[in-house]
Amino acid sequence: MICFILSVFAQILKSGWTGANECTFIAVKPDGVQRKLVGEIVRRFERRGFKLVGLKLVKASENLLREHYWDLRTKPFFSGLIMYMSSGPVIAMVWQGSDVVKTVRKMLGETNPADSLPGTIRGDYCVEVGRNVIHGSDSVESAQKEIALWFGQSELQRWEQSSSRWI
C-alpha cells in the first residue's frame, strides 16, 4: 500500500513520472528455492540499487495461486502451473526503485529460458519454460494487484536506504 499511495501521489503531481517509489512483486518459484538461488537473486536486485521493502517465505495456497494466475485459467497448462507453484515454498518479495517494473523484467529474461540472454536470471539459471525459477510483475498495475494479494499492509516496510543519494 505504501508503494501504491506514493505512486498515485507522484503520478498526480508529475505527468510521465516513472517512479522513484514504484514497486514490483517478485516470487522465487519452488524450483529456485530448491536450487538455492534465492541469495543470488536478491544480490542481483540489491546490486542494481533497488530497495527491498517486503520479503517472506510462504507455502502458497491453491486459492492464492488461482487468483494470482487468474489470467491464465483457460490455458492448458494452468492445472500443472498451480501444482508446480504449490509443490514447495516460494519467496515472495516487493522491490522498490525507479522504473523497477520494467528494469526487473529485463533482468529476469524471457519466460522461455531458450529466448533469454546470458546475464539474465532465466538465461543463467533456467533450462525449461515449466521451471523458470522466478516470477516478476509485467506492469505497474499488475504489481499493485500482486503485492496486495501476497502482502498485508503491515508486511511492507518503509525505511531509508543510506546509499539512496548515490544511486
From TrEMBL:
This is Nucleoside diphosphate kinase. ATP binds at K29, F77, R105, T111, R122, N132. One of its GO terms (molecular function) is nucleoside diphosphate kinase activity. Residues 21-158 form the Nucleoside diphosphate kinase-like domain. Major role in the synthesis of nucleoside triphosphates other than ATP. One of its GO terms (cellular component) is ruffle. Residues 1-18 form the signal peptide. Its cofactor is Mg(2+). Its EC number is 2.7.4.6. The keyword Isomerase does not apply. NCBIfam families: PRK00668.1. SMART domains: NDK (SM00562). The gene is nme3. The keyword Nucleotide-binding applies. It holds the Pfam family NDK. The active site is at H135. InterPro entries: NDK-like_dom, NDK-like_dom_sf, Nucleoside_diP_kinase, Nucleoside_diP_kinase_AS.
